[in-house]
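Hey L., structure's done. Input below.
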Amino acid sequence: MPLHIEAVINVLKYRQVDILPRGELFISRDFLDHFFGKYKGEYIKQLEAVAQCLGLSVIGVELDAQWSQSLLADRGFKKLKDYFTVGCVNGPIARLIENHGFLNAMLSIKDNPSLFSGVGTQLL
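Output:
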């Protein structure tokens, strides 16, 4: 198992690790295109480049965007095998953050856990 993935899994299981995993989830395509323009249009290569450059162990990928469907169908995200990869689907938490801001959304969930299920129910 690659070092980054192993480190993240060990941290999640409260085991001792040799390196502290670092992550930056859901880096915007605008950022990738601006700073990693060499690979513009090649989302996976851009993510690999930013992960290497920033020393990341965890990276997020967009799963519900129209352009990501072909990557899913072709198993393109499998190329990120060295990194612990998290997928983003625009769901209730994202909408809560959009409507109330990140800090207020997190505080609302902490103070009222049923809020999350309420938002989910409204979406359904």
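Helices lie at 3-12, 29-35, 43-54, 68-73, 92-100, 102-111, 114-123. The first strand starts at residue 23 and ends at 24.

-- N.
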